[in-house]
Amino acid sequence: MSAPTLSAERLTTAPGDHVCAFYRGEAERREILREFLAAGLAAGAPCLCIAGDADREWLAQTLGPDLALDSYPATYTHGGAFDREHLLSYWQAWGEAHGRGTRTASDMSWAEAAFGTPVLEEFMAYEAETTALARQLDATALCLYDLERLGRHVIIPALRAHPVVLVSGVLVRNPYCEAR
């Protein structure tokens, strides 16, 4: 049995999946975001993307008004620093408000500087908890990590926290995931 691959039509995932997508550069990030979110919107799923200003503007133009968009300061760095409890509550409330089958996507580049500090351990604990939350809410969560900007001190913990991984266009169940 071969793994689903990233195609022009669809990034094949299932409700409850928490996916770690490794990418290189803006063009690949945007292609993954567009395919993942467009597939959700086409299926009638409520979709949310947390992204930087430029990506939010691009996504609004590309995918239209049905896509919910939010910023890092309103979510990940609410109150000026990463707040695990705030963010888990944010996802819980969004998922409950929009029902089962939602899709969410977030690029983790915002945390590049923080990942060199003790915040990394707290963040990866949050990622492991997000795996359980995605299953509880029957949501599909996509976390994007730029291989050109983040080192192995981030990549290895990210692998441990995500049960599904997208790398080089191939989606696979992750045997290295410790979050079950």
TrEMBL record:
UniProt-recorded name of the protein: MEDS domain-containing protein
InterPro entries recorded: MEDS_domain (IPR025847)
Domain MEDS, residue spans: 17-163
Pfam families assigned to the protein according to its UniProt record, in alphabetical order: MEDS (PF14417)
Domain of life, source organism: Bacteria
